[in-house]
Amino acid sequence: MQYGKRLAGGLITAAALLGTTLAVSPAATAAPATPASATAHAIRGTAPACVKRDVIKHRKYVKVTNLCGRAMHLKVVIDWGPDSRCLTYQHKQQWEWNWGRGSYGKVVTC
Length: 110
Prior knowledge:
By secondary structure, the chain is of the alpha+beta class. 20% of the residues lie in helices and 34% in strands. The chain has two domains: 1-30; 40-110, Sandwich (Immunoglobulin-like), CATH 2.60.40.
C-alpha cells in the first residue's frame, strides 16, 4: 500500500514538473483558462433586430445603428477579411464600416 501512495505522489509531482495534468476521469478535466483580456470582448452572438444594418455589399460598406434603447457593444464581422473592433454604441448612435477584402458576414454583440 505504501508503494502505491509513493507511485501516485511521484506521478503527480512529475506531471507538475512537466506542466501537464493527469486526467482521472472525463468529469475531472477542465477547459483551458481564457485570459481576461480575451473574454472582455468575446463574441456573444448575432446582434438583436433592434440593431439596424444598412449593407451595400458591392461597395463593401455597412452602416450600423443602435435602436435598442440602451448601450450596445457591437462588432462587424467580415468573412475572409478584417473584422471591425468592438465598439460601444449609445441609443440612436450609428457608425459606418468599409473593408477592402472579404464580404459582409454579420453584426455581433461583444
